[in-house]
């Protein structure tokens, strides 16, 4: 019997790629104007900053922290991070959060899971603070029973530690859960290695996910 469905957040509940690209353009235009630099210099310096932060930290939640990207970027272009880092961070996230909205399948599926008294959880790579802000902006906070971020777990998907933590927090057996996510390697292989059923989400086929999820719930309930 399925008792919980765990969702990835970025590119599974909303279009991360679209919102991120839009926010990066707004940040780029802001920096080009503010620091009188070229688009190319902005892009090279920002990408370099991101690479350095990721390399320094490895696969942990903080490696996605935009505040660290802004700080390193400002260090590279020779501007004071103490003056500008927070401003750039807010430029990016405000632009990003303004545009995010749930994919079409999300609210109908959440309603159905609620009716079936199946718990809804989120298992996501990134820092807790910003993922909580996204959940609020998406208007789904009331539906979510449990959240685990990679910042909390100290590891990123597909590390088993992430999955073990959500299993423990939900007090369920792995086979009582379904994981839905857009990354085959992180979400599906990670879930299956922990004994959780996996369903790959593809935003180009948004309409099939409800059917797939309800079918799996039905198959699992008939097994008992
Ligand atoms: Mg994702």
Biggest sheet details: 5 strands, parallel
Give the CATH superfamily of the largest domain.
HAD superfamily/HAD-like
Radius of gyration: 19 Å
Q: Strand tally, please? A: 5
Give the class-level CATH name of the largest domain.
Alpha Beta
Continuous helix count: 10
* CATH architectural arrangement of the largest domain: 3-Layer(aba) Sandwich
Question: How much of the sequence is in beta strands?
Answer: 5-15%
List low-confidence stretches: none
Main β-sheet, spatial strand arrangement: 3-2-1-4-5
Q: What does this molecule look like?
A:
With 224 residues, the chain is of the alpha/beta class. Helices cover 58% and strands 10% of the residues. It has 10 helices and 5 strands. The protein has helices at 16-35, 39-57, 66-77, 81-99, 106-115, 128-138, 150-153, 160-170, 184-193, 209-222; strands at residues 4-7, 119-124, 146-149, 177-181, 197-200. Strands 3-2-1-4-5 form a 5-stranded parallel β-sheet, sandwiched between helices. Helix 1 runs antiparallel to helix 4 (81-99), helix 2 (39-57) packs across helix 3 and helix 3 crosses helix 4. Its cofactor is Mg(2+). Keywords: Hydrolase, Magnesium, Metal-binding. One of its GO terms (molecular function) is metal ion binding. It holds the Pfam family Hydrolase.
């Amino acid at each position: 019997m399925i008792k919980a469905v765990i969702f990835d957040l970025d590119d599974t509940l909303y279009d991360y790629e679209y919102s991120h690209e839009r926010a990066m353009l707004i940040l780029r235009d802001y920096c080009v104007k503010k620091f009188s630099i070229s688009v190319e210099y902005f892009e090279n310096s920002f990408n370099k900053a991101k690479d350095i932060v990721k390399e320094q930290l490895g696969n942990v939640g903080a490696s996605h922290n935009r505040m660290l990207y802004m700080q390193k970027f400002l260090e590279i272009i020779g501007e004071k991070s103490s003056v500008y880092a927070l401003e750039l961070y807010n430029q990016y996230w405000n632009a990003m959060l303004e545009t995010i909205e749930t994919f079409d399948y999300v609210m109908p599926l959440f309603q159905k899971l609620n009716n079936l008294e199946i718990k809804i959880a989120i298992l996501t790579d990134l820092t807790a603070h910003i993922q909580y802000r996204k959940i609020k902006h998406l208007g789904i906070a009331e539906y979510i029973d449990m959240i685990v971020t990679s910042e909390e777990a100290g590891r990123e998907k597909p590390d088993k530690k992430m999955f073990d933590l959500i299993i423990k927090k939900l007090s369920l057996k792995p086979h009582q859960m379904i994981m839905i996510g857009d990354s085959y390697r992180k979400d599906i292989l990670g879930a299956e290695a922990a004994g959780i059923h996996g369903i790959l989400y593809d935003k180009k086929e948004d309409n099939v996910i409800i059917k797939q999820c309800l079918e799996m719930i039905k198959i699992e309930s008939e097994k008992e």
